[in-house]
Amino acid sequence: MVYPDRKQYKDLPLSEEDLNTKNTRSSFSSAASARYSHGRTSHIPSTIHRMRWTIVNAILFISGLFFWFSPLSKNMALRRLSDQDKWKATSAYSPILERLDIPKKMITSNSTFYDHEPLPILRVPTGPEADAEWNRIGGNTKLRPIVISSAEVRRIGKDPARAVKIPEELGYGSDAYIAWTEVFHLLHCVDILRQQVYSDYYASGLHGESHLDHRSHASHCLEVLAESIKCTGNTDPILFAWVEGTPWPSPEFHTQHTCRDFETMLDYVNNHGIPEDVFNAMTGPPPGYVPIPEFDI
Asked: How far apart are CA 177 and CA 167, in angstroms?
């Protein structure tokens, strides 16, 4: 069988339609080939990119944990707190702290061991001038209770049914209870002990108390003052110095203290506490109130 020689044949020219079809197929094939080639290699940098972000996020998270629990973070948080926030954080709930911003006051005490002239007023032993100052700051004669609501009584942790309520006819509404602020109770107790020390001058006794009641009052005051001092746990340092004529180191009581501004609190209770005549008008419990046994107060 004889086959014709291929060389004697020539390709026929393609029509315009055939050329367009060929070019389209060629372009599609090239694009598909390029996409396939790119798909085989592009996943590598994409994976590296994701790994980098994962590492960065992990580093940021761990760094944040270290910072959160570091002393620097705690110091920054403390600096953002106001003095009022710090008073609240170191106190039981108190209506006064909700109503009154108490400034911080830095003082240097001058409580020398021995008396010196002129005596500071709180070291004056007896007399009208001393009594006036002790009464001014909350001593013997002024209780200065403030008015609080039943909701505030509950926040203190007490039952309003057991608290003294101001009768409505005295003008304080239907939800008014009386509360004493601890600082004035403590100062009252210091004054009681002062009078005990100078009992020859205050021989008439306190509020007409019997000798036994006076002793019990003083004993109560010793206890509450000691408990308050232990509770506060003042950590202010007291240095020692060499004193003439003393062969051992002596404490030097010119010490610095950070205080709540007492005069601010005193002004508040003077302006918002109930008057003495209102307190004295409450002479007995309302009907249905069961009094607390005498030795449970």
From this structure: 9
Amino acid in the structure at residue 109: S
The pLDDT assigned to 46 comes to: 73
Q: In this predicted structure, what is the pLDDT of residue 255?
A: 92
State pLDDT tens for residues 239-276: 999 999 999 999 999 999 999 999 999 999 999 999 98
Where is 134: in which H helix or E strand? helix 128-137
Q: Which two tokens stand for residue 218?
A: 């003083």
CB 265 within 8 A of CB 100: yes
pLDDT exceeds cutoff 60 at 193: yes
**Count of Cβ atoms closer than 10 Å to residue 144 Cβ:** 21
Whole-angstrom distance, CA of residue 174 vs CA of residue 33: 90
Q: Any alpha helices (H) in 157-291, and if so which ranges?
A: 182-197, 211-232, 262-272, 276-281
- Nearest Cα residue to 269 out of 187, 147, 149, 158: 147
Contacts of 134 (CB under 8 A, 6+ apart): 122, 140, 187, 191, 194
Q: Do strands 256-260 and 104-108 pair parallel, antiparallel, or not at all (unpaired)?
A: antiparallel
Structure confidence by residue, pLDDT tens digits, 9-28: 455 454 555 444 444 445 44
- CA distances (Å), origin 30, targets 36, 37, 39, 41, 259: 10, 10, 14, 17, 84
Q: Are 277 and 143 in contact (CB under 8 A)?
A: no
164, 178 Cβ separation under 8 angstroms: yes
| Two tokens, residue 150 | 């039943």
pTM: 0.72
- What torsion do the CA atoms of 54, 60, 62, 66 make, to the nearest 10 degrees? 180
Beta bridge partners of 105: 259
Nearest Cα residue to 205 out of 130, 259, 148, 140: 140
- For residue 279, give the nearest of 166, 183, 168 by alpha carbon: 166
